[in-house]
Design a protein that fits this description.
By secondary structure, the chain is an alpha+beta fold. Strands 3-4-6-5 form a 4-stranded mixed beta sheet, sandwiched between helices. A two-stranded antiparallel sheet has the order 1-2. A hairpin with a 2-residue loop joins strand 5 and strand 6. The two termini are 38 Å apart.
C-alpha cells in the first residue's frame, strides 16, 4: 500500500508541474479543430515527458527513504555505522564529490543503491542483508560502486534520457493516433474521438516498450562504468570479489526508481533486452580485462 501511495503522489506531482508549465508557456492545445499543431504537440510532449522524469528525480531521496524505510546515519551508533560513514567519506573525497547521505534499510536480501538529484546532494543506502552476508572489503567495493554512480552523474543522465524517450513516445503516439483517426478512418469531428484516444494509448504502450529497451541498454552500459569506478575507489580485486559474492546470492528487489542504480538486479521476466544490469559474469570479465591505468570515474 505504501508503494501505491507513493506512486500516486508522484504522478499527482507530475500532473501539477506539467499543468503549471503549460499554463506559463501557453501551450498544450495541439488540436486546432481537425488539424494537428505539431509545434504545440511537441511542446506538450516535452513538458509531460520531462516533468515525469525530473519530478521523480527531485523526489528521489525522499521516495527512497519512504519506500524502503532507509534510515540515514546522522550520528553513528556503533563501530559498523562509523566504518560506513568513514568509508563513504573517503571514497567521495577521492571521487571529487560532496559526501552523500549514508543510510541503512532493513531487508534480508543483499542490495545497495544510490539516488539523488545532483552529485552533491545524493544518498547511498545499503541493506542489512548485504552487511550481514558480505566481508568488509566486499561491502567497501559495493559502496564504491554506488559512489561511482553518483560521481558519474548517472541519476541525472538517466533522467535526461528518460525525458527524451518519454517526449518522443508521446509525440509519435499522438501522430499515429491522428493519422489513423483522420486519414485512415476519415473522421471529421473536432477534438479527440474515441478512436484517437484508443489508438493513442495502444501506440504509447508499443513505443514505450521500445523506449524501455533503449533505457535498459543504456543502464547496462552505466553499470560497467560504475564497476570501473568502484574498482578505482576500492580496488579491482575487491570489486571482483564483491561481484563474485553476489553470484552466490539472490539479489534484493528495489522500487523501479532505484533499481537501475542498485548493485545488482533480478533477471527481467521479459528477457535480456529489459535487464537493467548486465550478467554478473560479464561484469567480472570486463573488470579482469581492464588494466589498472584504465580504472577511473567515467
Amino acid at each position: 500500500m505504501k508503494r501505491i501511495g507513493l506512486f500516486l503522489l508522484t504522478n499527482i506531482a507530475v500532473l501539477a508541474v506539467a499543468m503549471l508549465m503549460m499554463n506559463l508557456l501557453g501551450v498544450g492545445n495541439y488540436m486546432q479543430g481537425t488539424n494537428l499543431d505539431l509545434g504545440n504537440l511537441f511542446a506538450f510532449a516535452a513538458i509531460f515527458g520531462f516533468a515525469g522524469s525530473f519530478v521523480s528525480l527531485a523526489m528521489s531521496k525522499w521516495l527512497a527513504k519512504m519506500s524502503v524505510g532507509a534510515q540515514v546515519i546522522t550520528q553513528p551508533r556503533n563501530a559498523d555505522e562509523q566504518w560506513l560513514m568513514d568509508t563513504v567519506s573517503r571514497q567521495s573525497e577521492k571521487a571529487g564529490i560532496k559526501m552523500p547521505e549514508v543510510a541503512i534499510y532493513d531487508s534480508p536480501e543483499p542490495n545497495a543503491f544510490a539516488t539523488g538529484m545532483t552529485k552533491n546532494s545524493s544518498l547511498v543506502a545499503v541493506s542489512t542483508g548485504l552487511l550481514r552476508s558480505m566481508r568488509q572489503n566486499e561491502v567497501e567495493a559495493v559502496l564504491a560502486h554506488e559512489v561511482a554512480h553518483v560521481a558519474n552523474g548517472d541519476m541525472v543522465t538517466m533522467a535526461l534520457l528518460q525525458g527524451v524517450l518519454n517526449t518522443f513516445v508521446i509525440f509519435f503516439a499522438k501522430i499515429v493516433a491522428y493519422v489513423v483517426d483522420r486519414v485512415v478512418l476519415k473522421n471529421e469531428e473536432e477534438g479527440h474521438s474515441w478512436t484517437f484516444i484508443i489508438v493513442d494509448i495502444v501506440a504509447q504502450i508499443l513505443f514505450g516498450i521500445l523506449a524501455s529497451i533503449v533505457a535498459m541498454w543504456f543502464s547496462r552500459r552505466r553499470e560497467f562504468h560504475a564497476d570501473n569506478g568502484g574498482a578505482y575507489l576500492a580496488g579491482r580485486e575487491n570489486m571482483i570479489a564483491a561481484l563474485q559474492r553476489l553470484q552466490t546470492m539472490q539479489p534484493g528487489e528495489l522500487p523501479d526508481q532505484m533499481a537501475a542504480f542498485g548493485i545488482s538486479a533480478k533477471k527481467s521476466s521479459f528477457g535480456d533486452l529489459f535487464r537493467s544490469h548486465p550478467p554478473l559474469e560479464d561484469r567480472i570479465a570486463a573488470l579482469r580485462a581492464t588494466t589498472e591505468d584504465q580504472l577511473k570515474i567515467a
